[in-house]
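Entry 14. Ran structure prediction on the chain below.
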Amino acid sequence: MSDTPSTPSIPPTPAEPSDTGRGVEAAPQSSAAQPQPRMSYREQHSRATQPQRYQPWPPPPAGPRPSPGPPKWLIAVRPGPPAGIRPATLVAALATALLSALLLGEGLGLNLLFVTVPTALAAGFAARAAGRRLRPWTFVWAVGGLALLAVPALRDAGWPTFLACVSALALGSLALHGNRTWAGVLAGSLGIFGSLASGPAWAWRGMRERAEVSRGRWAPMVRTALVAAVLLVVFGALFASADAAFAGLLGGLTPDVSVADSPWRIFLFALGLVGALAAARTAAAPLRWDRLEIRPGRARGRAEWALPLVVLNLLFTAFIAVQLAVLFGGYRKVLSETGLTYAQYARQGFWQLLWVTLLVLLVVAVALRWAPRGTDRDRVLVRSVLGTLCVLTLVVVASALRRMDLYVDAYGLTRLRISVAAVELWLGLVIVLIMVAGVLGARWLPRAVAASAAAAVLAFGLVSPDGLVAEQNAARYKDTPEKLDVHYFQDLSADAVPALDRLPEPQRSCALVGIAERLDGKNEPWYATSLGVARAREIIEERPLDVDETECRKLGTYGDGRGPYSEY
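Output, structure tokens:
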């Protein structure tokens, strides 16, 4: 016997009979052999119209997607890392901030020059530390920007001052970038705004690095500046209390700072500091906008390109022929057929001709983009067609200026009329530059157009538009005494006082009453007073006004009607 227990035997299960009648063991049936349930019509329709609901989930991505990164054009224009800020740059920026807080709260005048000079020094120090050299065009932009800031110091009119300040900022930005292409000139004129945030960060990072290297140098500099300031305040106060004349001189030279306007002064300090640091940061590492690649358009065939321009030239020729016929004695016939007056005919076409000049510049730019340029014959064709268009456009510019001259003879000169005439003259100059570039090459054209615009703004401010308006209308009064709208003179600036002072009474007093009231309400310091305001005050003090309200009402000073000057 064995110790292992015996397992009871299980009788085998008899096999089920198959279809053939033989007894075999049944194999398990697969699921494919089983009949599929029939889908309803709704489920079939759902699978046909919304197959995405029954598709398996897509496999997970292989890994994290790479970040797209900055665009290619930004990588192309991005400069290298800037050099660290130098102590001279930091001192110049702080001087700009201090002068801004002390001088810019009263008005605009010489104070803009006082604030701009240390800003230019800060940019110069930063550019020198970065190894940049002074180039001729950089010198032109810098000198032109400083010259434009002379307009607020000389003129009182707000609109030439605004144009001069904006143009000076654009020229300063161009001087910091040093661009020469169309994209570089357009973007570089506004490029300084891109450093408003990075400038203070660059200065703070440089100060921290230098503070760690030379901890013992900053304390003597700070102590020296504090001792000098204390000595100036103490001894200046003693001398001012000892002598009234010195106190008056000191009070006239130093700004009047009070606690009440401290928030405004703090804002100006921050504005000056941020602006100076932005200029220095731009000079240290400017964006290279010249690297922007503007691909030319696909060259068109000669006939496809030239035919529309030839038709346009023929239209210009027909218009100029009519203008010449009118110019040589056809005014009466034209006016009798149209029913317009002499001045209405002159005014009617000036604005249209101004738009014609602007659109011609756009047509030239578009035509050059798709111009044929494969052979010498193509280049000759382009120069001939576009040169003809530019010459005809110059004749249109002359016609527009002639119409404005006729209108001014009939109705007098206004601010708007002299402004649009100046714009038309500048557009004519741009067309001449384009014609010269077609002969000599266009490499210098973008900078030349920018320089011409700055020169036009400078000349416009220096000639004193308000003074010209007053002088021309005062001269017209001698020939036509009934054509003098004294009401319009109330809106002019102090630049018009010397010309209006030559009018007889009561026209003189009625014309100057509005300007005199504005001058009496102002008390700017010497650095915030323009030369035009100073001259106007001297004239009015030497010859006080004698205002008769009854006479002034007859001349339109206190009336509601504006007369012929309100037409545009």
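The radius of gyration is 40 Å. Will compare against last week's run tomorrow.
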